[in-house]
Structure to design on (1321 residues):
């Protein structure tokens, strides 16, 4: 069987997901063994335009981006959104809630209209996405599992359960039970990260997006119960889930 | 505890052991390289952790975040590994090593006693049984309620029914030690002296006082414990399920922390070479959406309220009826873990009871 | 040996039945016969992909060969479809209760297979036909969504032509080639000339059909304790531990998948 | 060579972080235009920080860059601590220094081995080297693995650290874990460093010199990444809070990243700037390494940035060992800090004495500055971030302007290659440079 041809592309983002791939350690060599990487600008000068699987990280944030992602979709048999920016627009979407004219002026002053910029959007706002690997940044183990399952002609496993499941497995004290409780989006956020943030003493900020049947009414009830102001709530939702309620 | 005695066909030995010498015995075992796990403080709560000294043990603390079941039925457990070249080689994996579990509360001992039933019934689950056999369970009696959520007294679970090797009761300078097995007896290695009738009477008195205290402090269970299966059975269509379901995250936290939830998912993980891999099981939970989804996409228990009902019924109806024991030991973990306060089995039973009486 | 270790089996033959279904002949590497009852199932392992419960489609026999009819729908079944004769897979089982033929001996039997339900039912059909003298009248009723999706076409013809079988079939949507009954399977029941008093009825099909078929049978006067159903649920272990297949207080993998209707009609989650 | 026309346009320079184009226009032997176009979509990070409470701001700031997220986190934390007058403990600062050096190790290993080296083998990427030079690739992977393990253990993960927060850590590494890391660092020094030095000492770098203005942190106590005064060849030594007088940013049409001048001329930041300025403070093994590589301070060859990175890899391994040893000799105390609580948390803030703060660190690619104005309830009112790559852009163009006439006699392919290698040697991190904000702070 011929090795599948794989390409990596980046749009607006920190490129931390591609870097995570480059940081797979020994498994990176296994990856190079099992697929043919034909386009990986960050790591390679070879710009192959013939590929089966396209991993795309980053958000769509300019009109040029729209053209480029459409071209990639046309060529790719399988298109995978890599990481939060591609999946939910990630932190990039924070700016969607600011006045666009104002922030452009703030940044570029009188040259505000020189640069091409549109609202930050996830990849699937423009083209069809076959699979998602969520999280900011992606998890190495999940990426490897994803690739091996894809190579094995499987529909890759993506948990539908929330972060709480793995947080409990880890035996963490719930963020809402600490002497000074902190907002945690664990109950509505898709698991699979191993509850990495709560396990490191932080809160789940929702970077993996919502579970398919997230109970947002219950979340409202909970945050009200803890006296969280509406402003705090929205700020927190809008770390990664600016499109919450519309996009899961 | 009486049940354990009668099942073993005779009285169990009881000893009086100086606390210092008991703890010294454990510390020596640790020095010899034995793995000892006990509850220790974790932030404002507790958790089971491998200890280096008995000084780390949190006696009489709140219930651990995760129950002791994780030592016999871990969150992730490899069941087999395989290699598929020209030949298929499948190697079952049963991992078990000796472990001393010290300071276990009755709710968790009883939880394991119940899991013993289900994992040995008909198709014996070797992965569970081997771990269980390697475990030395040293329980400790709770003399104060451990948390506002717990209701072990209401579930006849303040003392272990079965499933321990030693059970300690704090008598100040001494432990009153009840032996539950030959393994427990040999662990003691002749420490202490046989308990006298006076010692036994003293413990009886302590337990009477403790019962009174628990009765006063723990939340009441309004229906009779033995009536729960019938009460639930008659209230299948109670509005309670939908009302509570509306506020349920379906997050599965209650399943994860429960000492008697034992559902699991099985998945394969294959290496990039597609030739080597493992099959493992992970904790799963009936409160999770995916739990009943089949390949064609149908979900058989889609409604959160129905899932909540199923969980409650498993504890206090289906398995209660089947085994003659409630599968809720009143540890209170689920009630604590449930952030929107919908899952607590005692609350649910009381609410249903009240509503059915006012009908 | 643990209950989770599959035995290796070899694929002997693959027959494509429809676009999505194929029939696999398998043999255990040990050469032993499977020793199953009709209605029992296996956990089929494709190593690296996972396990899935699959009903056994062949009749019980002393031969080492047994058959699975697999629809390509999930990861395991898709992977199974990519396998060729000579490839090795894993199996655990047979699991479940299956049909007890003693319950049907001396009775007329009405065997209803809807869609892929014909796969497990085929095992029972051949078991009945192999000792035809033990039973009264034998009715076989099969329905598919379209003529293209009919399974075991040759056998359907064989049954249709047998004088000792009363055969009915229907499709939901017909094409030019189809001469027979058109309509969902429950619409055919009123046309079948059987004596409800003397009949044991068996229904095997996807979850949606049970409610309608049972209603039709009851309309005809079949008693609840003469109706048998074969239910499908998510299963992970097959041995009564993992909890996924539970319907109220029964485990489909242990107490079923075959149930006498009167015993589950009060289980709200069953049908 | 008079009369030559040359038109070079490299679309999306590869093996760099982010999107940039090289544009060279020579007419009649005369250099008309040299540009490094930065075409990354603007990211508006400073605007995104506005309205955020500081614990969230740290995590958002980290997302500016996937490779130097620890530096961004550190700079963000330091700006906040500066504004709120929080003085972290010795232990916290020591742990941060270790983390910064771990990040340098990872980033330099990535750049020098994976991104820069293929040029010298005429290869498009490191991928074919996995079979042609497996030892070299393995060495790089070992460094990266080690750096990641250090970060995983200490702050949850390498890219976008989790438990590194204002005033400390939400989760603390244990002494056992640190001792384990120390063993691995020492093993890397013993096994992997000699292989790396042997490999790089055989590589021939292009000859080109242009003396730049070298700008970096200076600190009498150590070769600084985490803390120090700023020193620039043009502006001298100054305090971090004075950076606005010494660094001037300008918007240029062809770049979504602003260009920086210090204050008048272009300047260089990064490994070579640090090496040239702080050579004497390198750990002994690193100085030894420089000698082996034939790298002398000062070096005016920008292609030597890669070599300076190799030297810094050695330095960081040695320095981390020393820091961990110091930490272990004092013992690690449980100084965990909590994330500020759900509600009513502004009451728990320390009284703010200053309304604004500046945090400066040495990221792998050079000087990184975060400046925030914070209001009374701990919310960011205004933010400014100056990214190393943005500071280097004007200098890269100045280098190109000087280089092109020197090599005009070569083939277009060769010229293109040398220009790409030049840009690449700066290890530009374009995506994080493209989100600038000119903020006028009203004090």
């Amino acid at each position: 069987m011929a090795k599948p041809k794989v390409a990596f592309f980046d749009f607006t983002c920190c490129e931390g997901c591609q870097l995570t791939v480059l940081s797979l350690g020994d498994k990176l060599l296994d990856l190079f063994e099992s697929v043919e990487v034909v386009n990986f600008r960050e790591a390679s000068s070879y710009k192959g335009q013939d590929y089966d699987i396209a991993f795309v990280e980053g958000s769509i944030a300019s009109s040029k981006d729209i053209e480029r992602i459409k071209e990639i979709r046309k060529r790719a048999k399988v298109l995978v959104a890599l990481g939060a920016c591609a999946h939910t627009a990630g932190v990039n979407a924070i700016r969607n809630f600011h006045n666009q004219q104002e922030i452009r002026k703030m940044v570029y002053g009188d040259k505000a209209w020189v640069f091409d910029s549109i609202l930050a959007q996830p990849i699937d706002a423009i083209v069809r996405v076959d699979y998602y690997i969520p999280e900011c940044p992606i998890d190495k183990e999940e990426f490897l599992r994803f690739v091996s399952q894809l190579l094995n002609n499987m529909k890759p496993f993506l948990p539908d359960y929330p972060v709480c499941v793995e947080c409990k497995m880890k035996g963490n004290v719930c963020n809402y039970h600490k002497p000074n409780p902190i907002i945690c989006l664990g109950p509505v956020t898709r698991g699979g990260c191993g509850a990495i943030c709560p396990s490191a003493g932080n809160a789940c900020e929702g970077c993996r997006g919502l579970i398919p049947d997230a109970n947002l009414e219950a979340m409202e009830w909970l945050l009200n119960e803890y006296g969280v102001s509406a402003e705090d709530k929205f700020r927190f939702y809008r770390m990664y889930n600016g499109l919450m309620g519309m996009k899961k | 505890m009486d049940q354990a005695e009668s099942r073993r066909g005779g009285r169990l030995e009881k000893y009086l052991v100086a606390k210092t010498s008991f703890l010294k015995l454990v510390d020596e075992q640790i020095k010899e390289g034995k793995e000892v796990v006990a509850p220790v403080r974790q932030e404002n709560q507790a958790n089971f952790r491998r200890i280096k000294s008995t000084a780390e043990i949190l006696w009489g603390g709140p219930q651990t975040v995760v129950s002791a079941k994780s030592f016999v039925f871990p969150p992730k457990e490899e069941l087999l590994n395989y290699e598929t070249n020209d030949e298929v080689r499948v190697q079952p994996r049963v991992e078990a090593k000796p472990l001393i579990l010290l300071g276990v509360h009755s709710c968790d001992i009883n939880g394991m006693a119940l899991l013993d039933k289900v994992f040995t019934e008909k198709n014996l689950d070797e992965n569970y049984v081997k771990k269980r056999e390697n475990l030395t369970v040293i329980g400790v009696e709770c003399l104060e309620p451990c948390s506002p959520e717990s209701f072990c007294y209401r579930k006849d679970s303040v003392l272990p029914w079965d499933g321990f090797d030693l059970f300690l009761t704090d008598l100040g300078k001494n432990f009153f030690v009840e032996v539950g097995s030959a393994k427990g007896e040999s662990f003691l290695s002749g420490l202490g002296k046989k308990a006298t009738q006076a010692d036994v009477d003293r413990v009886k008195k302590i337990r009477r006082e403790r019962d009174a205290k628990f009765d006063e402090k723990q939340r009441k269970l309004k229906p009779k414990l033995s009536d729960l299966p019938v009460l639930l059975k008659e209230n299948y269509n109670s509005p309670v399920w939908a009302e509570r379901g509306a506020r349920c995250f379906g997050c599965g936290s209650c399943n994860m922390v429960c000492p008697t939830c034992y559902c699991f998912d099985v998945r394969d993980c294959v290496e990039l070479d597609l030739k080597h891999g493992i099959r493992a099981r992970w904790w799963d939970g009936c409160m999770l959406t995916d739990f009943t989804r089949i390949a064609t996409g149908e979900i058989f228990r889609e409604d959160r309220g129905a899932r909540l009902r199923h969980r409650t019924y498993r504890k206090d109806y289906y398995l209660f009826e089947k085994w003659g024991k409630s599968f809720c030991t009143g540890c209170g973990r689920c009630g604590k873990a449930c952030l929107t306060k919908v899952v607590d089995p005692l609350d649910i039973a009381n609410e249903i009871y009240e509503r059915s009486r006012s009908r | 040996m643990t209950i989770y270790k599959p035995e290796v089996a070899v694929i002997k033959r693959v027959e494509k039945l429809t676009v999505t279904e194929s029939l696999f002949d398998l043999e255990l590497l040990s050469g032993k016969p499977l020793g199953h009852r009709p209605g029992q199932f296996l956990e089929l392992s494709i190593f690296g992909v996972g396990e899935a419960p699959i009903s056994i489609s062949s009749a019980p026999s002393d031969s080492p060969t047994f058959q699975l009819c697999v629809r390509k729908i999930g990861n395991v079944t898709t992977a199974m479809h990519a396998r060729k004769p000579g490839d090795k897979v894993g199996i655990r089982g047979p699991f479940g209760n299956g049909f007890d033929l003693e319950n049907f001996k001396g009775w007329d039997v009405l065997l209803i297979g809807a869609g892929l339900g014909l796969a497990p039912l085929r095992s029972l059909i051949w078991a009945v036909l192999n000792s035809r003298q033990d039973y009264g009248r034998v009715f076989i009723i099969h329905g598919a969504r379209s003529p293209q999706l009919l399974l075991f076409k040759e056998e359907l013809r064989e049954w249709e032509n047998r004088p000792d079988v009363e055969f009915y079939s229907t499709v939901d949507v017909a094409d030019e080639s189809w001469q027979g009954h058109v309509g969902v399977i429950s619409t055919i029941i009123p046309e079948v000339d059987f004596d409800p008093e003397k009949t044991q009825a068996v229904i095997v099909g996807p979850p949606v059909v049970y409610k309608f078929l049972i209603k039709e049978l009851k309309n005809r006067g079949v008693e609840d304790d003469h109706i048998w159903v074969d239910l499908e649920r998510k299963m992970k272990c097959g041995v009564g531990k993992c909890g996924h297949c539970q319907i109220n207080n029964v485990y489909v993998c242990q107490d079923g998948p075959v149930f006498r209707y009167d015993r589950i009609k009060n289980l709200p989650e069953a049908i | 060579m008079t009369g030559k026309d040359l038109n070079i346009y490299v679309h999306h320079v590869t093996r760099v972080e982010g999107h940039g184009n090289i544009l060279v226009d020579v007419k009649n032997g005369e250099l008309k235009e040299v540009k490094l176009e930065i075409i990354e979509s603007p990211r508006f990070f400073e605007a995104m920080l506005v309205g955020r409470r500081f614990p969230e701001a740290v995590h958002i700031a980290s997302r500016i860059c996937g490779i130097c997220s620890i530096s961004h986190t550190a700079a963000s934390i330091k700006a906040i601590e500066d504004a709120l007058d929080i003085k972290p403990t010795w232990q916290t600062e020591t742990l941060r220094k270790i983390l910064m050096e771990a990040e340098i190790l990872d980033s330099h290993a990535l750049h020098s081995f994976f991104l820069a080296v293929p040029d010298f083998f005429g290869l498009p990427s490191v991928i074919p080297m996995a079979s042609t030079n497996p030892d070299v690739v393995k060495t790089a992977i070992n460094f990266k693995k080690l750096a990641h393990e250090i970060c995983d253990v200490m702050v949850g993960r390498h890219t976008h650290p989790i438990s590194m927060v204002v005033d400390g850590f939400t989760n603390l590494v244990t002494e056992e874990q640190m001792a384990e890391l120390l063993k691995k660092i020492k093993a890397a020094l013993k096994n992997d460093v000699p292989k790396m030095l042997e490999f790089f000492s055989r590589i021939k770098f292009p000859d080109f010199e242009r003396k730049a203005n070298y700008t970096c942190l200076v600190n009498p106590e150590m070769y600084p990444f985490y803390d120090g005064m700023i020193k620039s060849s043009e502006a001298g030594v100054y305090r971090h809070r004075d950076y606005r007088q010494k660094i001037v940013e300008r918007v240029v049409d062809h770049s979504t990243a602003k260009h920086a001048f210090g204050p008048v001329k272009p300047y260089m930041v990064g490994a070579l700037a640090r090496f040239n300025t702080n050579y004497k403070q390198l750990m002994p093994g690193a100085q030894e390494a420089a000698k082996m590589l034939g790298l002398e301070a000062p070096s005016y060859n920008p292609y030597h940035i890669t070599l300076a990175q190799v030297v810094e890899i050695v330095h960081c391994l040695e320095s981390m060992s020393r820091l961990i040893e110091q930490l272990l000799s004092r013992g690690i105390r449980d100084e965990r800090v909590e994330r500020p609580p759900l509600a009513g948390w502004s009451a728990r803030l320390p009284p703010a004495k200053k309304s604004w703060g500046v945090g400066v660190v040495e990221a792998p690619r050079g000087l990184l500055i975060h400046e925030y104005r914070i209001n009374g309830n701990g919310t960011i009112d205004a933010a400014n971030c100056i990214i190393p790559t943005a500071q280097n852009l004007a200098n890269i163009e100045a280098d190109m302007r000087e280089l092109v006439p020197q090599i005009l006699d070569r083939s277009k392919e060769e010229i293109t290659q040398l220009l790409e290698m030049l840009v690449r040697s700066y290890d530009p991190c374009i995506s994080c440079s493209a989100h600038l904000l000119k903020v006028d702070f009203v004090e």
About this structure: Chain B touches chain A through 39 residues (CB under 8 Å). The longest helix of chain B spans residues 197-217. Residues 119 and 125 of chain B are 5 Å apart (CA to CA). Chain B has twelve helices and twelve strands.
